[in-house]
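User: Hi! I have a protein structure encoded as tokens and I'd like to know what sequence might fold into it. I'm fairly new to this, so please keep things simple.
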């Protein structure tokens, strides 16, 4: 199972945000795509942060209560982002996911360029596919 790698299961076209994007626009993107969050990238495609549904939800509740204009992505995004590399093992990522809170991880190359995202569901699908294939092969042999 160690041969399963993040690069084979990541979402190559995740929703992404720009730092100066309005939160209302970011919220609309998440609503339309049904994603849990997404990477914030600069003009060069480098990862600079991450914005989740929870980040937006908290701000929108506050905004609705005080009837204020919301803010921009760079004011809400997290900059301490846990990332994965394309060559990371799915098993290693699954173990990390059991201990760390993020449900979605940006995947970056060694230069910090965004390659995509991988979420818990992607990891679960990879493990399920591998286990089913192994079970099918062992049933045929036996």
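Assistant: Happy to help. Inverse folding works backwards from shape to sequence: for each of the 142 positions I chose a residue that suits the local structure. Here it is:
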């Amino acid at each position: 199972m160690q041969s399963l790698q993040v690069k084979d299961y990541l979402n190559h076209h995740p929703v992404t945000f720009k730092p100066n994007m309005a939160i209302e626009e970011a919220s609309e993107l998440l609503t339309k795509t049904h994603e849990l969050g997404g990477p914030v990238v600069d003009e060069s495609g480098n990862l600079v942060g991450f914005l989740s549904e929870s980040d937006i939800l908290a701000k929108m509740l506050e905004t609705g209560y005080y009837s204020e204009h919301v803010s921009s992505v760079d004011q809400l995004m997290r900059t301490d982002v846990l990332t994965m590399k394309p060559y990371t093992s799915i098993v290693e990522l699954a173990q990390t996911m059991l201990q760390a809170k993020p449900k979605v991880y940006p995947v970056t190359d060694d230069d910090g360029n965004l390659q995509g995202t991988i979420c818990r569901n992607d990891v679960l699908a990879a493990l399920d596919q591998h286990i089913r294939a192994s079970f099918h092969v062992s049933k045929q042999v036996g």
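A useful reference point when you look it over: The longest strand covers residues 47-52. Feel free to ask if any position seems puzzling.
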